[in-house]
Amino acid sequence: MADHRRFVLCGHRGNMADSPENTLVSFASAERAGVDEIELDIRTTLDGELVLLHDHTVQRTAAAPTPHLDVPIERLTFDQARTIDLGDGQLIPTFTEALDTTSVLLQVEIKAPAAARPLARFLRDHPGRDRCLVTSFDPLSLADFRAEWTGGARGIALHIPDVTGNWRDHADRLDVSTVFVPVPQLSTELVAELHDRGRRVAASLIEGPGDVRRIVQVDVDATASNSPAYARRLLESDDEFTARFPSFATRA
After folding, report:
1. Residue 1 lies in a domain
2. Going by fewer Cβ within 10 Å, which terminus of the chain is more open, N or C?
3. Domain for residue 3, yes or no?
4. C-alpha 167, offset from chain centre
């Protein structure tokens, strides 16, 4: 039976299978692959610029030697951060650049607690705010964000690394709109519980056909992939998924 819900496929850090993660070229590649949403990671520089970087440092992601290899991004000025080569001609982008160069929904993950309030103040005044779902593994970061600004059409979302933890109280207190659950920890009962409470459920992450079968079985609303083109092909080839979400294939 067809479902009225819109299933959302997210490119994790853009299209990591094709381009350097959390870069403008990676986001463009994800959009070409047909994603509905792009996930990106927010931190701040020493002088307060909102920039995109997953790790504390560029030790893992820098493509060329740099004196800043092991320096936390929060200790670098924006000008210093901008000298780091991430490969394919890409530099560390600002959040403004990400908003200005993308057209799909954005999943904005707060990676550093210090970025929560600056992000809230930025989005409060930015016309692209309604495309953004602000997420974090850290309930305190989401609380700081909400203390600064409670707007946003898509709300906020909590990542649950372990479903046996005390996450329900955080989700209720923060009034989150979406809960992110690792694929292996998903169950039909958990998804039904969250749906009954008016929350969307996103599965992290699709890596193969077995993950697609699982997310169809438990009936989630969204998922993400490091290789969104591959994930889209897997979803479109699953008859039960396409019967439930017939509009998905037409959005490629």
Report:
1. no
2. N
3. no
4. 19
Helix (H) or strand (E) holding 104: none
CATH code for the domain of 225 = 3.20.20.190
Query: Which position has the token pair 């609380």?
Result: 143
Structure tokens at 231: 């994930």
Q: Is 141 helix (H, G, I), strand (E, B) or coil?
A: helix
pLDDT tens by residue, 105-127: 999 999 999 999 999 999 999 99
Q: Pairing mode, if any, of strands 132-136 and 50-52?
A: unpaired
Q: How many domains does the chain have?
A: 1
Specify the pLDDT at position 206.
95
Q: Does 87 fall in a domain?
A: yes
Question: What pLDDT was estimated at residue 224?
Answer: 98
Q: Is residue 2 part of a domain?
A: no
- Positions of the chain with pLDDT under 50: none
Range of the domain at 138: 10-251
Cut 0.90: pTM above it: yes
On whether the CB atoms of residues 7 and 33 are closer than 8 A, the answer is: no
Q: Alpha-carbon torsion 245, 8, 142, 190, what sign?
A: positive
DSSP state of 92: P
